[in-house]
Amino acid sequence: MSEQEQEQSDKQKYEFRKVIEELKGYSGSGTQLVSIYVPEDKQLSDVVAHVTQEHSEASNIKSKDTRTAVQDALTSIKDRLRYYDNPPENGMVLFSGAIDTGGGRTDMVTKSLESPPDPIESFRYHCDSEFLTEPLEEMLADKGLFGLVVLDRREANVGWLKGKRVEAVKSASSLVPGKQRKGGQSAQRFARLRLEAIDNFYQEVAGMANELFVPERHEMDGVLVGGPSPTKDEFLDGDYLHHELQDMVLGKFDVAYTDESGLYDLVDAAEEVLAEHEMLQDKQVMEEFFKQLHDGEKATYGFDQTRKNLNMGAVEQLLISEDLRKDVVAYTCENSHDEFELVDANASTGDHDCTRCTATVPAEEGKREDAIDHLMELADQRGTETVFISTDFEKGEQLLNAFGGVAGLLRYSTGV
Questions:
Q1: CATH level 3 topology of 279-410
Q2: What is the pLDDT of residues 204-244, one digit of tens each?
Q3: d(Cα 352, Cα 103) in Å, to the nearest integer?
Q4: Strand, coil or helix: what is 382?
Q5: Rounded CA separation 387/57 (Å)
Q6: 3-state SS assignment for residue 254
Q7: I want to staple 96 with a disulfide (CB 3.0 to 4.6 A). Which of 110, 181, 337, 390 is the partner?
Q8: Cα 55 to chain center, whole Å?
Q9: pTM
Q10: Angle between helix 260-269 and helix 271-295 axes, rounded to 10 deg
Q11: Topology of the domain comprising 25-141
């Protein structure tokens, strides 16, 4: 994946996270919040027919309030589906329902999310007091593409780890004889034939792996190999894998089973390595940031300074904490001074006193938007790469807590 594609993917995931967080904050007084997952290959006419059927069956709900809420939600979803000829790539998810707003009042919410990070695998209709967001959350947590190989001298399986999903793809059984030789064979000849059979099997396993992994090697994050000792060691030490794949091996792990279940055991055994690798890019970026902060002149941090450097076109990489939840309020005073204030998301604000003159801007004249959207738009206009930094490691936490969740690596020193 190119840097541009990765950045676009990160932005899409951020937008999805915002919507999911919003949806998770909603609840209904009854089972009146409807979630529908639509695969890419699903005929929308079938979806509409299903929604129509559910609308009809909802008339049997005893509670009048719940019955009305469910039917209103299904009508809203049906209206939203009219805007589509076919499901978008990877499918779509629709949410609709009457949410509690306090004081016995409700408000109708309808949202759709198109083209999630991973394909929606099956049609799903869900009606509950909360929206069903877990499948989307799992997609957003998914990171990485890893090749998996498990083998012993009897069998082997090769597959993928795509995010958190294990896919078994190829398998093979060996013709390696047991350690007991048949009558009439000398021990030396039997040992030679057995070694040849082992070598042939290792070549067959490597052939499966090469055929599957080599075409995707530029998209892959690494290869994991599992099995009992000494099998996995012989396989890797013998350089059976394509040389580029050999260089991508992140580790070898003791795995008892080498059938399809062994692929899952391999992922479990490699948990620490996978977690470390997932953080690797974030850690490298933050290491460079701290290096520039202490020993160089190409680091900026904090909303105000980073925004100024962005406007100057001086920021090479914009670093934003994944957990930043702030809004930007823009004010323009009577003397045409533009100022920006970072506030907690959804927090109320008072009148703003311009720092460059004595004018006061009434709170209602401030224009509010999501801080990350604001910064990303500036970054796009200046050709700046946006990098989202996880808080799952120490320096990622420091970005959020010590530097306000916003920083940057500069193209050149600005003194700002």
A1: 60s Ribosomal Protein L30; Chain: A; (3.30.1330)
A2: 999 999 999 999 999 899 999 999 988 999 999 999 999 99
A3: 32
A4: coil
A5: 48
A6: strand
A7: 110
A8: 34
A9: 0.66
A10: 30
A11: 3.30.960
